[in-house]
Automatic annotation (TrEMBL):
Domain of life: Eukaryota
Protein name: GST C-terminal domain-containing protein
GST C-terminal domain residues: 95-204
Gene3D superfamilies: 1.20.1050.10, Glutaredoxin (3.40.30.10)
Protein species of origin: Lichtheimia ornata
Gene Ontology biological-process annotations: glutathione metabolic process
Gene Ontology molecular-function annotations: glutathione transferase activity
């Protein structure tokens, strides 16, 4: 994939929110042009977009979804891995053990954001989530980022999990709490100083 090929991304939160955020950050970092299509979640997505995707033969009826060369791809982590491969493994470690570490980190980040979504959009009790669950996630991720000589999960080279974890850290309910976790602070600083992301992170 060259930098001039357009990816279309479809997601149900605006800007860099939720699961669209890691995909956008990775494409921004790589300097890849893409079109972001925001889909309104409560009416447009369930009543118009989902049925259309299914009718058109795309069985994965959740967002985010990307289109590339008139094909559709779903699943946040699979999309990140796929795009990294298209970018000549730019964000995938060469070492298989490290790749597994990056995958595990992404998988755990997906669990974390779903726990937050559950509190923010289903139980509507973010305070309770912050009191009962947040510390466990922050400690877990600080530990994950302490293992390799960072600032990134796999060491000094960024990989796709780092975009995902950064987006989860920047959720309003999380960001003021990361200051006590040195490895998470180091990750945030590293992401924020990447040349192609400096303007983007101001929007988060
Ligand atoms: N495993 C999927 C989960 C995607 C997901 O749950 N997306 C939500 C929006 S954040 C959605 O489309 N929900 C609609 C539904 O479950 O019907 C991924 O990682 O992309």
């Amino acid at each position: 994939m060259t930098d001039s090929i357009a990816v279309s991304l479809y997601y149900i939160l605006p800007e860099y929110g939720g699961l669209g955020g890691p995909i956008r950050l990775m494409l921004d970092d790589a300097g890849v042009f893409y079109v972001f299509n925001y889909i309104e979640y409560y009416e447009e997505f369930p009543n118009k977009v989902k049925p259309r995707w299914i009718e058109e033969g795309h069985p994965f009826d959740c967002a985010p979804m990307i289109e590339l060369y008139e094909k559709r791809y779903s699943g946040t982590q699979p999309i990140l891995r796929f795009l990294s491969k298209k970018l000549n493994n730019k964000y995938t470690p060469d070492d298989l053990d490290l790749e597994q570490y990056v995958d595990a980190t992404t998988d755990y980040a997906a669990d974390w954001i779903q726990a937050y979504f559950n509190a923010a959009y289903r139980t509507l009790n973010v305070k309770e989530y912050q009191q009962n669950d947040l510390k466990r996630y922050l400690e877990r991720f600080d530990r994950i980022y302490s293992v390799h000589e960072g600032p990134y999960a796999a060491g000094q080279k960024i990989s796709y999990c780092d975009f995902f974890v950064y987006i989860v850290l920047m959720v309003d309910a999380h960001k003021e709490y990361i200051k006590d976790y040195p490895y998470l602070v180091a990750l945030a600083k590293a992401i924020e100083s990447r040349p192609n992301l400096q303007n983007v992170v101001k929007q988060l």
